[in-house]
């Protein structure tokens, strides 16, 4: 009898411990969901700042912050809404509280749109928001259905076009000359197309499972790497010529660092890896998402030294 009481008590303790462990795991996953897009948003805000600099325009800090908040909203919404491939590609988010993620992202969107409304740039806030929803969930009205996810390279084209327009639009809203705006769109549009494709290499397993025809899945590693290298060389050649002829501000550090860092990322991170070590993930994050942070830091350091 005493043994049964003891074993029953032990069982209750084990169940309670397992329950607490499960709750802790879900809370940790929710925290991961909330913070997963912070670096991308911060990097995006700095890209807007760099776009201002390249266009001979005084950087507007409020616009950069608002842009970062909109970027955070779109990426957090995508992860909170979830998709089949995310169960493989982002296992750390499994079990997260989606309502918390949706609430935080919508609050960020409200603050971002409020700032942009004050700067008379409100329509630009809805371009990535609407595009992001069409990509993640799509819309269906009767027999008509529209979803941007799934086609060959569609994801990367959507990323490049959306954020290229967003960055160039925010930085160039007061620019009377269209040429610098187009050049900034090409520069950041191509860069973000490439960055999104680089991330597809680590997501090959999940994308294949979900039937998403990303470039690495459809074209193969070598052809995709050659495509990215060609696009990278082309965009930096265009920007380099623009700098020489004065179409953009003479900021050789921005272009040179971007050129070297981009080549390293294309050669180093375009290999299918189903399991990535923490050190490799950190290195990829710093070089891909942290590029604009590094450029800004180097630029500030150069001014201090001078």
UniProtKB/TrEMBL annotation:
Swiss-Prot/TrEMBL keywords: Membrane, Transferase, Transmembrane, Transmembrane helix
InterPro entries associated with the record: UbiA_prenyltransferase
Source species, domain of life: Archaea
Bilayer topology annotation: Multi-pass membrane protein
Compartments, record wording: Cell membrane
GO terms of molecular function: transferase activity, transferring alkyl or aryl (other than methyl) groups
Main subcellular location of this protein, as a coarse class: membrane
This protein's GO CC annotations: plasma membrane
Coiled coil: none
Annotated transmembrane regions: 50-75, 100-117, 152-171, 177-194, 233-260
Protein known as: Prenyltransferase
Biological source species: Methanosarcina mazei
Gene behind this protein: ubiA
């Amino acid at each position: 009898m005493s043994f049964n009481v003891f074993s029953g008590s032990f069982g209750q303790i084990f169940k309670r411990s397992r329950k607490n462990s499960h709750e802790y795991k879900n809370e940790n996953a929710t925290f991961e969901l909330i913070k997963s897009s912070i670096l991308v948003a911060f990097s995006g805000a700095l890209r807007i700042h760099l776009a201002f600099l390249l266009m001979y325009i005084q950087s507007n800090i409020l616009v950069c912050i608002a842009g970062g908040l909109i970027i955070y909203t779109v990426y957090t919404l995508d992860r909170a809404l979830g998709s089949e491939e995310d169960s493989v590609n982002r296992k750390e988010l499994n079990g997260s509280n989606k309502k918390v993620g949706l609430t935080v992202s919508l609050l960020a969107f409200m603050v971002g749109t409020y700032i942009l409304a004050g700067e008379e740039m409100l329509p630009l806030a809805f371009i990535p928001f609407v595009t992001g929803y069409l990509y993640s969930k799509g819309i269906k009205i009767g027999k008509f259905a529209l979803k941007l996810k799934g086609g060959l390279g569609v994801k990367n084209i959507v990323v490049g076009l959306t954020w290229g327009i967003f960055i160039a639009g925010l930085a160039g809203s007061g620019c009377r000359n269209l040429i610098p705006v187009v050049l900034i769109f090409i520069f950041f549009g191509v860069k973000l197309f490439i960055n999104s494709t680089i991330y597809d290499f680590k997501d090959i397993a999940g994308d294949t499972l979900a039937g998403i025809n990303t470039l690495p899945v459809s074209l193969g590693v070598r052809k995709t790497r050659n495509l990215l290298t060609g696009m990278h060389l082309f965009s930096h050649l265009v920007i380099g010529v623009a700098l020489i002829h004065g179409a953009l501000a003479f900021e050789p550090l921005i272009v040179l660092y971007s050129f070297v860092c981009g080549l390293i990322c294309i050669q180093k991170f375009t290999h299918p890896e189903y399991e990535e070590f923490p050190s490799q993930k950190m290195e990829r994050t710093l070089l891909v998402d942290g590029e604009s942070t590094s450029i800004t830091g180097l630029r500030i350091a150069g001014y201090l030294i001078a």
